[in-house]
Amino acid sequence: MTPARPGWLRPLTAALAAPERLQQVVAVRPGVGGRAAAVLVLLGEGDRGPEVLFVERAATLRTHAGQIAFPGGAADPGDADLVDTALREAEEEVGVQRAGVEVLGLLPAAHVAVSGFDVTAVLGWWRERALVSAVDAREVASVPVVPVADLTDPANRASVRHPSGYTGPGFEVQGHLIWGLTAHLLDGVLDLGGWQRSWDTAREVPIPVRYLTDRRDAGGPDAGGPDAH
């Protein structure tokens, strides 16, 4: 028997049918017709309500080393569409089984200036949970699955500032800082789902030095650096 969608998904699915709300998510960086890429924003049911799947990129990678991102990457010629891209990447990176994912909708593309990618976020309900892990340790260090309750906890929210002057939303969870494009998309999804809580918008935290090894974050669709803003 196919599991019924949980009630917490209803506000999100309703919002995904409202184009004007979706455009607001990427208003600061709308797509410009760049190279196509996609990420998967996968939402599952946990002990404390909805959860979101992320990947921690390996610390040895040339770009975005150690950063928290959504699974995803550039579109391949063999992909049927950007949904196929997002699901393929999630399967290759962490073993997500595409048969267990119900696609809810897509956000408009967001542009990453430094890499030239236009990144489409594919939102999915993790209908049939299965074990996930870092398939290739050379690319993925861990697979955090974080409760929305932690992401929206005011104690975990802040604005982040890059040494160049870039500012944007930030989330401090499980010893990591989520920032850049991932944080912008996450912030928008939390808005669409009606999950946001009030937090101190004047609170500002620095970007950890370990996330700044790239300096320009030039190499993937989930860039978090100043040029991505």
Describe the overall structure.
The protein has 229 residues and is α+β, with helices and mostly antiparallel strands. It has a single domain, classed as Nucleoside Triphosphate Pyrophosphohydrolase, CATH 3.90.79. The chain is 19% helix and 30% strand. The chain is built from 5 helices and 14 strands. Strands 1, 2, 5, 6, 7, 8 and 10 form a 7-stranded mixed β-sheet that branches. The chain has a 4-stranded mixed β-sheet with strand order 13-12-11-14. Strand 7 (110-112) and strand 8 form a beta hairpin. The longest helix has 14 residues, at 180-193. The model is unreliable at 215-229 (pLDDT under 50).
Largest sheet: 7 strands, mixed
Whole-number count of domains = 1
**CATH topology category name:** Nucleoside Triphosphate Pyrophosphohydrolase
Strands, total number: 14
CATH superfamily: Nucleoside Triphosphate Pyrophosphohydrolase
Tell me the structural class: alpha+beta
Unreliable residue stretches: 215-229
Q: What would the average pLDDT be, to the nearest integer?
A: 88
Specify the helix fraction band.
10-25%
Range of strand content: 25-35%
CATH class: Alpha Beta
Per DSSP, the total helix count is 5
Write down the secondary-structure element order: HHEEEEEHEEEEEHEEEHE
Give the oligomer, counting copies of the same chain as homo and different chains as hetero: single chain
CATH architectural arrangement:
Alpha-Beta Complex
| Rg | 16 Å
Distance between the termini: 44 Å
Structural shape: globular
